[in-house]
Amino acid sequence: xxxxxxxxxxxxxxxxxxxxxxxxxxxxxxxxxxxxxxxxxxxxxxxxxxxxxxxxxxxxxxxxxxxxxxxxxxxxxxxxxxxxxxxxxxxxxxxxxxxxxxxxxxxxxxxxxxxxxxxxxxxxxxxxxxxxxxxxxxxxxxxxxxxxxxxxxxxxxxxxxxxxxxxxxxxxxxxxxxxxxxxxxxxxxxxxxxxxxxxxxxxxxxxxxxxxxxxxxxxxxxxxxxxxxxxxxxxxxxxxxxxxxxxxxxxxxxxxxxxxx
Length: 261
Fold this sequence. Notes:
Elements: E1 2-3, E2 13-14, E3 17-19, E4 22-24, E5 29-33, H1 40-49, E6 54-57, H2 61-66, E7 76-79, H3 100-106, H4 110-117, H5 120-133, E8 143-147, H6 153-164, H7 169-177, H8 179-197, H9 201-210, H10 215-229, H11 232-239, H12 244-254
Parallel strand pairs: 5-8, 6-7, 6-8
Antiparallel strand pairs: 1-2, 2-5, 3-4
Helix pairs in contact: 4-10, 6-7, 7-10, 8-9, 10-11
């Protein structure tokens, strides 16, 4: 996969590329985080070199108000929130650093957050995102989909798209964990701040881990597929509302056919 390096905007990558025996076109599906303070040259780079045409913002309304989306000429914007922050008992003001302890104490474990995202209204919203991408017109590709940090909501969407394209679960996990190469710095800064300035080492470890991708988090997706639907096909049909023709058209569009010997 191609890591896209933009100063001040870590954790952006094209999930196209070769995954063992599946080759996916590049410049079609790009995952990342909220874009910040891009220079005109960086904006041109995203449009001309990365071929981004459509941005899908997965954040809640509160998050979008706190950090408005950067408007880039020539790119179409859409907001499809996976969940609204109020559902987790976190208000607009809780984003301030002075409230960080309350934020992380009221949040459930990350495993539970992933489980919740794959059920009820959040799953319906994931289905909206997937159904927005799969049948899109040619001029709407590539898609840039993102949440705040580009780890959890973005990670789930990327994993589902890759599974639909035939990428193995092992390769999906490897792609998901790439986030840690770009998020370790932030996790470490929060860890040091809480451990040495607030003298709470155990809580510091908990907060630091929140910014990291863990293998067991994305495996919640696999468990839901296996235990609640029985197969990826059933998950796509019943959970995401996808039809067979949509899936096959998507695969034909993005998968690079290998020449036979």
